């Protein structure tokens, strides 16, 4: 117990709580839409990442399961948390996008403000919405169309600006397995321009359900949204609080239990940018600081191997069907066998027609 009887959670207890919320203590029987809502979004910087995320978490998952949900518009891909590409349910997009609007406006100013000096941004967004009314244009196509009525304007900056300022999604086939290329834009209807206070509070509840217990700084790191301390204070009467070993206050939903630190955690091969590694300011619940510096370099976040719930290695896959594991700490022979077995299952999922080979790079 900590001060005033507050329960102190060890890094291992926080690790097991996170793995439980993220469906990484055992694969579960959920549909892709239900799982995506439970996880409160999937990173989709590359189209394949969301597929790997669900493969790691669901008992029965096939590529077409997720592709079909994206094609039907049940799940949508857009610029969201931390101004990066995520896949969310249509309902969650309507909740999250207005809350993120101030962040996305700030990103636009920082990245493209100088290149859009003199451009009326309100008018730009209105023109973009008209151009996209009932149709789809790629970002380059939209930028060029907007530049035609703005002589001397930077077409590329116009396209990117609209991506941040208008509630757009990237419709299929964009975001589906193996599909890359110019980003298509479509206007998503029914998204409020501004969030209500209830919206922001609901975003925090959903974050805690997927990643708690967590600090205010953790929620800010995950979302990129500022001003959350006041929101947590508003929610305090309905939340449960803990303390970590560094004395930081952690918040959680009262009906979410903390698993025993002794619960076994299976080997998992997480793809790049998996939210498990990015949802907290304090990442020691999943990796040590020296390992974090090897996994997170600049804007890149490597694909990782979890052993006993924490990062033990990185992995890469080539087009021939070979998967290479690079240990970041000592790994026992038993754990190597478990990693190899899981890696072969991943290759069977991702490249069923290739000759599969798992290698360890010393």
Automatic annotation (TrEMBL):
UniProt-listed InterPro entries: AlkZ-like (IPR009351)
PANTHER family: LMO0824 PROTEIN, WINGED HELIX DNA-BINDING DOMAIN-CONTAINING PROTEIN
Protein name, as recorded: Winged helix DNA-binding domain-containing protein
Species this protein is from: Amycolatopsis japonica
